[in-house]
Amino acid sequence: MWSSVGSVGTVDLADTSKINFSGSVAQLGRSIGVVEPAPVATAALAGGVTRPKITATIRYGVTAFGLDGFALGDFNLRLRYRDGDGQVVATFIEEPIPVGPTDPGTVVENSLIRFDSTNASFGGPSNVFRTHDAKAATGQFKHLISFTGNVYYVDLVMTAPAIQLGQAPAVSAIEIFLGS
Length: 180
Known about the structure:
Blueprint: E1 2-5, E2 10-11, E3 19-22, E4 25-28, E5 53-62, E6 75-82, E7 87-96, E8 110-116, E9 130-135, E10 150-161, E11 170-178
Antiparallel strand pairs: 1-11, 2-5, 3-4, 4-11, 5-10, 6-9, 6-11, 7-8, 7-10
């Protein structure tokens, strides 16, 4: 119903130096000295010392094509991603459209579907690209998608150690689609 490649999102200005784009792929930082397939590194080094983390955010505007009027419980958020030495979190977000001069100016972002690469059912971190889906929380299944009064976007956050010993987190494709 809606899809985007990782390299076409809008990057937060403060994060532009942290993201590398190559073809369809948006990647956090660069992998150092990795030969495919490398073992997934852990955040802790010898002696329990942890590596400082970096985070970058990319946002993708979602268009109404085929999504309007359906219940949220009908949708899946799918990512083709590599978490490698980090984490990939994507959230499908709804933001009400301002109603004019009487609008109270309150910013209300409603998180509808959250994808987290650390989900245990995904089998742990991986240095190769793979594809998984996430669904809305049970309590939001009946929420209707309405582009008449709202705008929608996907917020993608990649996190990894500042010095990466394994593959860098990356996203190649994002999709919101009807499915069970």
